[in-house]
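SAMPLE LOG
Freezer: B-3
Tube label: C17
Construct: single chain, 159 aa
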Amino acid sequence: MNTKMRDSRTSAYAPNSMKARVQRVVRGRRFRMDSPVTEADIHHPTDSGLLADAVRRVTRRARRLRASMTASIPIQDRARCVKRRILEIGKVLKRRTGEAVIKVRRITEELARIGVVQGRAVTQLVDAAKAQIAVLDQSAAHRVASPTSSNPPQLSNVT
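STRUCTURE (predicted):
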């Protein structure tokens, strides 16, 4: 086994190069290494998948917003029905027939309708939140504009 390395940048000595650096045989500043590559399936975005992600994320944000509000606008979590439709698309596509394509389009249209309904509900929630913020801002402005008699404003003589 070669303890001294001729060139620390070659991949042939890569397993021994770390050992050589630790033992201070080589003071290399650059380190080149070969590594195995793991194959993975590529997940291409589809209309149905993007719709499902959008519904899930919008619902999550709406729940957070609703928790910080005093108004109680109902937000229905439609993640289960969306997931069911996505799984149904996977089952239908395994058939590989012309009828399957038509059915997938119908399911995607259902997903789009679910997204529209969820979007309307979230829009109502956002409008209610804006109204609540406006009321809070107005009451804060009112408190500043008309101070109470127990707490008179302090005026300083600035020249």
